[in-house]
Write a structure and sequence with these properties.
One of its GO terms (molecular function) is 3'-5'-RNA exonuclease activity. By secondary structure, this protein is of the alpha+beta class. It has 6 helices and 15 strands. The protein has a single domain, classed as Endonuclease/exonuclease/phosphatase (Deoxyribonuclease I, Chain A), CATH 3.60.10. It has a 7-stranded mixed β-sheet with strand order 3-4-2-1-15-14-12, with no helix packed on it. α3 links the parallel β7 and β8.
Length: 348
């Protein structure tokens, strides 16, 4: 069994920001708004170095930003990727950084999310921008050469049809992959958007993400287990009592008609909702850690409202044992990006 930590983080482009640092003597002044990349880059790199993902997928950086991070992370990380405009250095990247002491890169490629995936700079449907997906095949060092694949992508921000077609392209790619797969990125897709529904086969439409519901379920499950072990009635919620039970489990046989390969039946699962937590009888977290929303914006007028756009999705028997949406804001108001980093520990 292999265990890895993965992270996805939209680090925001190096744009023409005009905000300046407050005067040194103004200790109470905050940094609000979108600050220059020259300032933000240090804390983006610190985030990676502090939480130590084995593999991290970034979205939106230009070539100069990738080089900045490659330099700041060079003691531990190598990277792959290219600019989306020409397949070289022009335009935004979706790079994959990886710990060289943990995994070994076997191969990588970039595809364009269009009708011609091999054509650099191509875009179709109602896409506002050229979009890409970066693929990398890794071998885990010291684990009998176990392989896995990572896909890092950034879907279109305005074209709903383009996002859905992009999801279909990735599902077709998945059908040819039999190694464990982690798909990460900024999908620009909420949970009711066609792209997310396509990738996850619509399985999460009834999921509740609020912490209170998770903890209520955890308490109920815990008291039920107490009832089984205590051989005495246990109160398990308002007006309910669970009686001691003796349950016998019998092995069953699966219908061969349903034994299709996982990647033909299920698409991707969402690490947030498939987390092996205490709610489901596992040791570990009580549920997802941190925030639910991943896009925060910079607090500028006219920005889209905060939402969940960034995901870690799993396929081919990859399981999640930790899941967290981390912070992107410091006490002095510095926002290191308009997105929060998302992290998971996975096993396969």
């Amino acid at each position: 069994m292999a265990t890895l930590k993965v992270m996805t983080f939209n680090v925001r482009i190096d744009g023409p920001q005009t905000d300046d640092l407050p005067p040194v003597e103004s200790a109470t002044q905050t940094l609000g708004g979108e600050q220059r990349w020259a300032l933000r880059k240090w804390k983006v790199a610190d985030t990676v170095l502090t939480f130590e993902p084995d593999v991290v997928g970034l979205q939106e950086p230009y070539h100069n930003q990738v080089l900045d991070l490659a330099d700041l992370l060079k003691s531990e990380y190598d990277w792959i990727g290219c600019g989306r405009n020409d397949g070289k250095e022009e335009g935004e990247y979706s790079p994959i950084f990886y710990k060289r002491d943990v995994v070994e890169l076997e191969s990588n490629k970039t595809i364009w999310l269009s009708k011609t995936p091999d054509q650099p700079g191509s875009k179709d449907w109602d896409a506002n921008q050229t979009r890409i997906a970066s693929f990398a095949t890794f071998k885990i060092k010291g684990n009998e050469g176990k392989k896995f694949q990572v896909i890092n992508t950034h879907f279109d921000n305005s074209g709903a049809n383009a996002r859905r077609e992009s999801a279909i392209i990735l599902l077709k790619e998945l059908a040819a992959i039999f190694d464990p797969v982690v798909l990460m990125g900024d999908l620009n897709s909420t949970e009711d958007d066609g792209a997310y529904l396509e990738l996850t086969c619509g399985r999460y439409t009834e999921k509740k993400h609020d912490t209170a519901s998770q903890l209520i379920k955890l308490n109920d499950n815990h008291t039920v287990e107490e009832a089984k072990q205590a051989a005495a009635p246990v109160r398990t919620g308002e007006g309910h009592i669970t009686l001691p039970t003796h349950i016998q489990f019998r092995r069953g046989k699966l219908d061969p008609a349903h034994l299709k390969p996982l990647n033909e039946r299920h698409g991707f699962t969402d690490a947030r909702y498939e987390l092996e937590s205490r709610q489901d009888g596992y040791h570990g977290l009580s549920g997802p850690y941190g925030h639910y929303l991943t896009f925060t914006g910079f607090g500028n007028p006219g920005e889209d409202p905060p939402s969940r756009l960034d995901y870690i999705l799993l396929a081919n028997n990859v399981k999640a044992t930790r899941y967290a949406v981390l912070e992107n804001k410091y006490e002095d108001g510095l926002l290191i990006s308009d997105h929060r980093p998302v992290m998971a520990t996975v096993k396969f």
